Amino acid sequence: MTVPAPVPAKELDEFLSRAVSGVSVLGDLRNQLASGERQLRIKQGFDPTAKNLHLGHAISLRKLRKLSRWGHEIVLIVGDWTTQIGDPTDRDLSRPLKSRDEVLANAQTYLDQFHLVVPRENTRVVLQDEWYGKFGLRDVIELASRFTAQQMLAREEFRKRIEKKTPIPIKDLLYPLLQAYDSVAIAADVEFGGTDQLFNILAGRELQEMVGQPPQSVFIVELLEGLDGDQMHKSKPATAIWLTDPPSEIYGKVMSIDDSLMPHYYEWATELPMSEVRATIEALARKELHPREAKRKLARAITAELHSVAAAEEAEREFDRVHKEGGAPEDMPEVTVAIDGAKEIAIVDLLVLAKLRPSKGEARRAVDQGGVTVDDHRATLDTKVPVSGAPVVRVGKRHFARIRFR
User: Fold this and answer.
1) Which pTM value belongs to this model?
2) Buried-most residue among 60, 260, 322, 383 (CB within 10 A)?
């Protein structure tokens, strides 16, 4: 077993406050980390409902990386069972059931991305199937008997459904119980999660006490906003910054966030020293620093942390070339569109066939708002694109594609 290192007070203060919404039993956790008396088992669960992790996930991943370097054990629980139920934390309706094959395929991509941030050393990955694969009906009934319907229905998301008269499937009530039992199964000392997971994590703490285990500390991190200003979420891919995005995409997305989000992005989504973060935010508030320059610094920092300094510098040059000089990116994707004998295609149809917009309605809106160009010429709803060439189509400020017809 690895012997953890004691953590200096100043470093611990920042760890327990930066991007942290709340830490239950803070005193115990602080003392345990400060003393390094024993290795703690840190639980982090992920439901692989989609293929990628986003920048918001990186908040807790960076915390886990630090804990791993301090010598504590990280246990990543892949929710192969809870994903098939679906956590109703942020939606009024229950998620559709996913197949086990789909869940496991997504889980593999999660693991690859998890280790982009968190080292393999002191890290253990487990699937819930290790314990739920052995569960029978008696086990489910025994687990369910530990909690009451009133406790589950007190959860804010369920109260909202009741107020809206939205159905609550019984399976949704089981989700917090399964996540809670994960803590018992691995005897977690600490569980990490976002503010949307507080109810589930507290249930795990309560269940541990019921079965005679020491209750886990609860470490709650903030939820980063996406490009639309709402919570960054896997269910809204167009508004997320993905860990797998190429450098130019990350840089461009950060440059597109609202100025008001910069304090959160600086503090929660970077590893810049807090003294530098505070100085930047204060300079912005005093209008001594232009928001554009602050955002460029932010975009460089985030891109460099996810890729490299060299990649961030190249992404910035590419951004300037496209947005300041009006050029198209050198690495734009090529899209092949099949045409049956026609000599031209309506711009709305082209956007849908090239998958630059998901529907004709959204394609019309993009064109009508003046956000679509073909070879640097602004398109209108009447625009017809000849199929004899290889036009460059831009939708919005950042989305380019070279079209090949066949």
Assistant:
1) 0.76
2) 60
